[in-house]
Amino acid sequence: MDFTDFGKLHYGFIGLGLIGGSIARGLREKYPECTITAYDMEAASVEAAKRDGVVNICAYEIDRVFSACGLIFLCAPVSCNAENLLSVRKVLHPEALLTDVGSVKGDIHAHVNNAGLQKQFIGGHPMAGSERTGYPNSRARLLENAYYILTPTEKTPREKTDFMENLVKSLGAIPLILSAGEHDYVTAGISHLPHVVSASLVNLVKNRDNAEGIMKLIAAGGFKDITRISSSSPVMWEHICMTNRDNILSLLDDYMETLQDIRDRIKKLDGTATYDFFESARSYRESFTDVSGGPIKKSYVFYVDIPDEPGALATIVTLLAFQQINLKNIGITHNREVAEGSLLIEVWEEKDIGRAKEVLSSKGYIVRIKK
Length: 371
Prior knowledge:
Layout (H helix, E strand, L loop, with lengths): L9 E5 L3 H13 L4 E5 L3 H9 L5 E3 L11 E4 L3 H14 L5 E4 L5 H10 L5 E6 L20 E6 L5 H13 L3 E4 L2 H29 L5 H5 L3 H5 L7 H10 L1 H23 L3 H16 L13 E6 L6 H11 L4 E6 L10 E5 L3 H12 L3 E4 L2
Parallel strand pairs: 1-2, 1-4, 2-3, 4-5, 5-6, 7-8
Antiparallel strand pairs: 6-7, 9-11, 9-12, 10-11
């Protein structure tokens, strides 16, 4: 098989949801002459992709039609990929490459080892997503500027890893090569544990709120921002916790020690130590890069000061609509302890923030971009 020309390769997709669909769309947009075969438990998704011109061949089972593929993406839910792997193994071309898009790598690598496919496998984790799921919400540029972690096995030929790295770059993503173990530990710290903490905070407020629901009423400020990720799929997070259990438990123990430490400082009225706790976090956070390719999808939000008068909101929306800036969310911020500006606007793409600020600022509005 020719791995030197991305456009001439035959790609296969087992699962065509948000991520699989977005990768397929990206390949079609970048390499219109390539061939794409896809299978999904929801046949309607594959058929829709064919009508869209994204998919060439609709597969209704994992059969020999995939034997012609040079690269196959396992894009079903993580819990299904192990089962699909066994089906793919029966039809996989001996020179073909196999990858996945799951957010836990140790589990799939173990199944790959058991199947004897180490030489043909490179784990993958595109760190992009959306609150909306399924093929209808996929888009060709979902991966742009997102980190795409690759986890080759010890037996993966270097040229195959180079191929995947270059393919990822060509789709606008940022490849990062890690071992499966390192990937799972890192994502446990900056993605999996934060989801556990976020859900814990939401449940704490739910269980400690009064009968009038005052906590819930005023949670629309900073609290809603820091717990935004709790809106993610509970099914997905149950499986992640089960498959990356050891790393999550280890870091959760460390986090609980940190909480106990700050609790002791506050209990002792140790102002200096408490200040150091917050200052250390503030300083370290300020050193973070602005690259938006992490595992927790960045929200593109800005705030606008508007007068409390009839038509003010409609004017803002109209100005942005004339510039063809699509709004994802818009609302009045009643709790502004963190947010600066009475109107919160969220857009779909990062580039739209700068355009929106330019348009609104030229009309005299004060615009503040969320950091």
